[in-house]
Amino acid sequence: MLEKISITAQILIALTIVIIWVFRFNRVEKEFKSYGLSDLTRNLVGASKISLSTLLIVGIWYKDLLLISSLLMAFLMIAAQFYHYKAKHPLLYFVLSFILLIFCLFIAAVASKLI
Question: pTM above 0.85?
């Protein structure tokens, strides 16, 4: 049961990242400007998130990839929380990255057999 929920979370994270970083990239550009971060940083973060999302999907079949990819994605979500706070964004901006953070930690817990 937990494994099925974990797989659902993996898919949801990957879909969310693709929607944000591919289809809503203009919003990402504006956000990173509000953070005062460079285009290079934005591109590295985007490439990292897309790569980690891919690993989360591949982790459906290769479980050994899940722990590290979910923890690295969780780190990026913590960084997103910090930068939303720093830029004084409204609460709605925090909600999505917080939900994704919880999903990542859940996946890591299942992958490491903590739950």
Answer: yes
